[in-house]
Amino acid sequence: MPPTDNSESRLRVWSGREHQRSANLANWNDRAAAHLVSPGYNVEGFVSDPQRIAKAVKLDREELGDVRGLSLLHLQCHIGLDTLSWARIGAEATGLDFSAPAIDAAREISRRAQTPATFVKSDVYEAPETLGKTFDIIYASEGVLCWLPDIAAWAQVVRRLTRPGGTAYIRDGHPVAHSLDLDRPDGRLEFVGPYFEGQAMRYDEPGTYVESDVSIDHTVSYEWNHGLGEIVNAFIDAGFRIDSLREYPFSPYRAMPSLVEGEDGWWHLPDQTGRVPFMFSIRATRSA
After folding, report:
1. If you write DSSP's letter for every residue of the chain in order, what string do you get?
2. Is residue 35 in a domain?
3. What is the CATH number of the domain that holds 209?
4. What is the model's pTM?
5. Residue 1 covered by a domain
6. Structural domain total, the chain
7. pLDDT tens by residue, 160-209
8. Which residue, of 123, 151, 188, 287, is most buried by count of CB atoms within 10 Å of its CB?
């Protein structure tokens, strides 16, 4: 029989989420060290070339436009290359992440690259209390929402961090792509995972998504999917006006063995037919 006291049930849920968060934090602490020396991130190239802008930012600036002089908060910024790219094109950039090694790495890259930016360690759900201010632009991209158990709560955080009339923007993996069997070598598109928000999916993988000689000791992680409707409505319910919703037929990395890298630097299905969206983006305005 289920417990009659709902608080007992909620306690079990949040206890489970604390365990999942701790596992994800340990995993991402390891990934920070691995990514610092990975050719996929090419930190040394970024440091040595003051004109270099991250590929993600080159795409997203088409949606966000001129950011010169605007305050921009990058949520879940990892080691900060995208944050620093926004700083290089004129934003007053702040990056936030829950991993101390990642934030330490971002600060060191900022110093070495002579690109000023602010980096803050905080869980994203606690960001409004940690930062205590609002920003012109809230930005997040590539590999963000899958680490969040509650998309509605995240959207409320974004609202609290966005100044009235300000912009929130996210580009991330599409929930359709997250539902696919990404390990199939034959290119067949088969749905095997959940599409809507629900229970966490547990993974135990020895490596990370880019090449690195640094081992990942904490290999267990937990992820959540969120349907596109759930994401859009989370923004609307938080008081945002949706200005743009885009879907992209390519991936920022080789998400499936069958994907091939195009001349544009993105990863496509070999027949280029756009049979499935691999990413989406939302640009929204907080109502005044």
Report:
1. ---S-HHHHHHHHHHHHHHHHHHHHHHHHHHHHHHHT-TTT-HHHHHH-TT---HHHHHHHHHH---TT-EEEEES-TTSHHHHHHHHTT-EEEEEES-HHHHHHHHHHHHHHT---EEEE--GGGHHHHH-S-EEEEEEESS-GGG-S-HHHHHHHHHHHEEEEEEEEEEEE-HHHHTB-TT-TT----B-S--SS-SPEEEE-SS-SS--SS--S--EEEE----HHHHHHHHHHTTEEEEEEEEESSBSS--STT-EE-TTSSEE-TT----S--EEEEEEEE--
2. yes
3. 3.40.50.150
4. 0.91
5. no
6. 1
7. 999 999 999 999 999 999 999 988 888 888 999 999 999 999 999 887 77
8. 151
